Target: YqhV family protein
Amino acid sequence: MINKIVMSMAMLRLASGTIEIIAALLMLRFNQVEKAIMVNSGLALVGPLVLITTTTIGLVGIADKLSPSKFLWIAAGVCCLFIGIIKK
Model:
C-alpha cells in the first residue's frame, strides 16, 4: 500500500513533468524564439510552486516526527534555496 503523502508528492511531480513536456512541445510547434521565451517564462512560475507544495506536503507527513528545531533548519534550507534561485 502506497502512503497517501508520498502518492500526493509523486502526483504533483508527475503533473509538473507533464507540464514541462507540454511546454517543450508547444515551443517546437510555435517554432519562434519569442513564443518559446513566453512559454519558458510561464514555466518559471510552475517550478517554485511545485517545490513549495511538495515540501509542505512532505513536512505535514512527518510533522509528528520532527522537533521544532528541525523544522527551523528545514525552513532555513528552503529559504536558502529561494535566495539562491531568485533572479536579480
User: Anything to note?
Assistant: The helical segments are 4-30, 33-61, 68-85.
